[in-house]
User: Fold this.
Amino acid sequence: MPELFTVVTPDEALKRLLSHLNAAIESENVKTNMALARVTSEEVIAESALPSFPRSTMDGYAVIAHDTYGASEGLPAYLNVVGEIPMGRSSDLKLKRGQVAKVHTGGMVIEGADAVVMVENTQQVDAKTIEVVRPVAPGENVIQIGDDVKTGEVFLTAGHWLRPQDIGGLMGLGITRLWVSRRPRVVIISTGDEVAAPEDKLTPGKIRDINTYTITCLALQAGAVPLSLGIIPDDYGALKAAAERGLEMGDIVVISAGSSVSTRDMTADVISSLGEPGVLVHGVSIKPGKPTILAVVDGKPVIGLPGNPVSAMVLFDHIVVPAIFRLMGCDKPPRRQSTQARLGHNVASIPGREDYVQVKLEERDGETWAIPVFGESNLIATLVKADGMAMIPLDKSGINQGDYVTVRLF
Assistant:
């Protein structure tokens, strides 16, 4: 096991963890309309073209483009209206030279026509005649067969995180079921003799469990299935038994390891005893969250998070979320939402450590300001009052009031 508290940078810690992980989750076939935020486990091939017929992009008239050449307001082209193309149905109409047919946005462009004149560029002469005051080129205002998606095209690659537009595109292609990676199961173990269930009446020295529920919500947001093993006392045998059970049940085990040094050391000892390769990192140069433990046991991540709620949330977001996406085969997870803001107060830091400061966002004279919500790292209220976290980079000794910072939004 590596020497304890030989800290590494957050990025190096994540790199070490991910280097031991493969996309090990099996696939399942689901309804497309229920697949939002899932990850494709294989390529999705378009079995038909989109659109499957030439479509008008405008309300107007389907025409033979050549008939409009030279048309202007001073010398319009006079063309005969032979009918109206119905929406949602095929039409037997076929255009000949000098003829047009009325068409609506999204309607089929009939045989013989090769362009659409916008209705704004026409004038009704009588029931059977229009004048065209602007010429069109072949293909103008028409989407051709396969312009959107071609038959046989790879519409989505394997490992793609599905967004609303992806679901819409799949439905447009008639793909109503698809193969996606199963949601990883994240087993959550909260430890500590001082930790009580939320419904318990507190006795002196007890605190209610927060981390199980914040981690549960973070796992759900990341597309995983959270499974809680409840509160485990500060006992080596009990914690090891719970961790072994967690490895049997889940794909990732997260242990909220308490706040005392002895508890953290016991957690590291338990994790190192579970299997190979064992503990990869014990100590990350980040505040809050330095005492984090990263391990892999038989291909499954085992993460020891600090006991205080802020640290646990920061490190879960930075470490466990990417691991969840890696197990689902998604190496390009959705970007975290962030914004640039001007810092409302001076914030000190230590070079070589990545600091996160809870901030509340305010608008002042058209600019966004990040106002620090100061407090100890074990105070959940600092997170409740905050809109996000301002990051102080590793190479900075602090950021001055008024300077710009990157704020990762909650």
Q: What stands out?
A: The mean pLDDT is 93. The domain at 55-143 is CATH 2.170.190.11 (Molybdopterin biosynthesis moeA protein; domain 3).
